[in-house]
Design a protein that fits this description.
Elements (H helix, E strand, L loop, with lengths): L12 E11 L5 E11 L3 E3 L3 E3 L6 E9 L5 E10 L24 H9 L6 H38 L33 H6 L11
Antiparallel strand pairs: 1-2, 2-5, 3-4, 5-6
Helix pairs in contact: 1-2
């Protein structure tokens, strides 16, 4: 269902955020984010002169290269357009993200490393949806591949062959919690989704 019909109004500003995820040939993943801010009216800027409607006041990119464990292996940050000449000078600071893992606490850690004068407000904001895009890109693929491996292992076991080791099972024999468990309301451990999808990790009241 779309939003309700608005009252009469004038379009002033558009912020557009686009994020994409790619699987690389070398086994790593590229997660890219692009952010633009565009006005519908002309205005003066000391650095760039007159900025016309449709010409972005902000036009910035970031690419995180991560592994299967969501650890950042490489970073590229670019400021194509900005309101001040000094803005692109801060992009080297984003190399501080190398070695950081996208997981719970990601946003807070990013702010610690790149908050305030240590970073660019818009690129830092972009790292939120970029992190979400990493999960949307990587997790489903790895889950499908794990399911295929488990299916193959079960088939071999049923055929009397030695069962292959499963990367989703710890040495104690217990399955590791899914990455998405307790990351939002839908995936809470005592919720209906967990009960159906990951019953072994369900913590709610058992049904009769």
């Amino acid at each position: 269902m779309p939003l309700s019909s608005p009252t009469e109004r004038e379009h002033i500003h558009t912020r557009q955020v686009t994020c994409q995820g790619f699987r690389r040939a070398d086994g790593l993943w590229d997660i890219e984010g692009h952010i633009t801010d565009i006005k519908t009216y002309p205005f003066a800027n000391d650095y760039r002169g007159a900025i016309q409607p449709g010409d972005p006041i902000h036009d910035m990119w970031i690419r995180l290269t991560v592994d299967d464990g969501f650890e950042v292996k490489a970073v590229e940050a670019v400021t194509d357009k900005s309101p001040f000449a000094v803005c692109p000078a801060i992009t080297p600071n984003f190399q501080r993200l190398v070695g950081l893992r996208i997981k719970s606490g990601w946003t807070q850690k990013v702010k610690e490393l790149l908050g305030g004068v240590e970073g660019c407000t818009h690129l830092v904001e972009l790292l939120g949806p970029v992190a979400t895009t990493a999960f949307q890109t990587i997790y489903p693929v790895l889950s499908r591949e794990k399911e295929a491996r488990d299916k193959e292992a079960r088939a071999k076991a049923e055929a009397g062959e030695k069962k292959a080791d499963s990367p989703a099972v710890s040495p104690s024999g217990h399955k590791r919690p899914p990455l998405l468990l307790n990351t939002c309301h839908a995936f809470r451990s005592d919720g209906e989704v967990t009960r159906k999808v990951w019953p072994e990790h369900y913590t709610g009241t058992p049904r009769p």
